[in-house]
Write a structure and sequence with these properties.
This protein has 390 residues and is an alpha+beta fold. The protein contains eight helices and 24 strands. Helices cover 31% and strands 24% of the residues. Helix 4 runs antiparallel to helix 8.
Length: 390
């Protein structure tokens, strides 16, 4: 048996029109799926949906954007309680495994591998049209390695276990950041930090004074400043196209977007500068390279970098962006955002409280990078039979 066979022998692109039998449904556009996940679950009126809202989905389907494959707008539909309540854009292919010889998890890992994404992006860029796009006709002729079904299942489990560990680390980091942000709000927005007797400052009658810049009362002895007092904002190092296989991770508006051979040897928050994810915040650690669509935030002395990062988290930067067709947030906009400067005693107590959490966050980020590199190294060899599984 030929171990390499076209995907089209096993998979169909489903274009079944939704019945629209309810007033409210969940609409998935290309921007509503990313790197395996469905990002929305909120209902909206059918009458308000865009014209491309057409397709039905089922659990087990793989959604794959026809537009710019390199943006990784894909999702694996799993464990939805009511998949019939979802209606999908015509710009998303609904891929359905119709064969009992192909494991769907195995198929998903093949379709989302760097090899497949890069190949499809190349085909999309060679298309004559206004933007890079693919169709199922391009995808269905891709050859996929088909070992015995039980081997496919084992390969898929190895890759899924790595993805699950990365996702678990991401959830832990989100919880740690949420905790730090909650404490920040309690101490530096509500001003109920512990006083010298351990009681909430403002609620216990702590002295307050009006601050003109903040246009509100703040604790006596505290000051206000602007974010450019806290950070030196710098755009990335040029319009550089990252590639896979470089030594250092590249940060852009969507977090890590590739790798390159240059680096900045320092930790820094990076704010998305332009595009749909502008205003988003990632923490770039160790050796990293920032592209043109990221703003690197270098902490100014004497401030603590984790206090600064939590301050940025508290500012809801995405609400401050400008532009409609091409959203952006510049460091000129960032400069004018005010922040609170607590007295030294409170700053030191807060930093001592949150530093262990952020050290765990960075540890998890580094582990995720290693796990991602391991997965990306293993995947092609598993998928072409170079590495055998028992």
């Amino acid at each position: 048996m030929n171990r390499y066979m076209p995907i089209g022998d096993f998979v169909k692109s489903i274009s079944k029109t939704h019945k629209f039998d309810k007033k409210d449904l969940i609409f998935l556009n290309t921007s509503d799926v990313s790197k395996g996940k469905i990002l929305v679950d909120s209902y909206m009126s059918v009458s308000e949906m865009k014209g491309q809202a057409k397709k039905t989905i089922e659990n087990g389907d793989i959604l794959y954007s026809e537009i710019r494959p390199k943006n990784k707008r894909y999702a694996y539909v799993k464990n939805l309680l009511k998949p019939e309540d979802y209606v999908v854009s015509t710009k998303l292919m609904v891929l359905r495994n119709i064969s009992n010889k192909l494991n769907t998890d195995y198929l998903y890992h093949f379709l989302t591998s760097n090899y497949t994404v890069n190949y499809l992006q190349g085909r999309a860029e060679n298309r004559i049209g206004s933007f890079p796009q693919i169709t199922f006709n391009v995808l269905k002729v891709l050859n996929i390695y088909i070992p015995d079904y039980i081997i496919q299942t084992k390969i898929a489990k190895i890759l899924s276990d790595l993805d699950a560990k990365i996702e678990l680390n991401n959830k832990i980091n989100a919880e740690l950041e949420a905790m730090a942000k909650l404490i920040y709000n309690y101490w530096f927005v509500q001003f109920d930090f512990p006083n010298e007797n351990g009681k909430p400052y403002k609620s216990s009658g702590g002295k307050m004074v009006y601050n003109k810049e903040l246009k509100r009362e703040i604790p006596v002895g505290w000051k206000s400043g602007y974010l450019n007092d806290l950070y030196d904002f710098k755009y990335g190092l040029g319009n550089t196209n990252p590639h896979n296989g470089g030594e250092y991770p590249v940060y852009g508006s969507n977090g890590v977007i590739g790798s390159y051979d240059k680096f900045n040897n320092e930790d820094a928050p990076v704010i998305g500068h332009i595009g749909n994810k502008c205003g988003s915040l990632v923490y770039a650690f160790g050796k990293h390279y920032v592209t043109y669509n990221g703003v690197m935030c270098k902490i100014r002395k004497p401030y603590d970098k984790f206090f600064g990062y939590t301050t940025l988290l508290s500012k809801d930067l995405m609400s401050r962006r400008r532009g409609s067709s091409q959203p952006f947030i510049s460091y000129d906009l960032l400069n004018d955002i005010t922040f609170i400067i607590p007295e030294d005693r409170i700053m030191k107590i807060y930093c001592a409280l949150i530093i262990p959490s952020y050290e765990k966050v960075i540890s998890n980020l580094k582990q995720n990078q290693k796990l991602s590199e391991l997965r990306d190294w293993l995947l092609p060899m598993l998928m072409n039979g170079q590495v055998k599984v028992g």
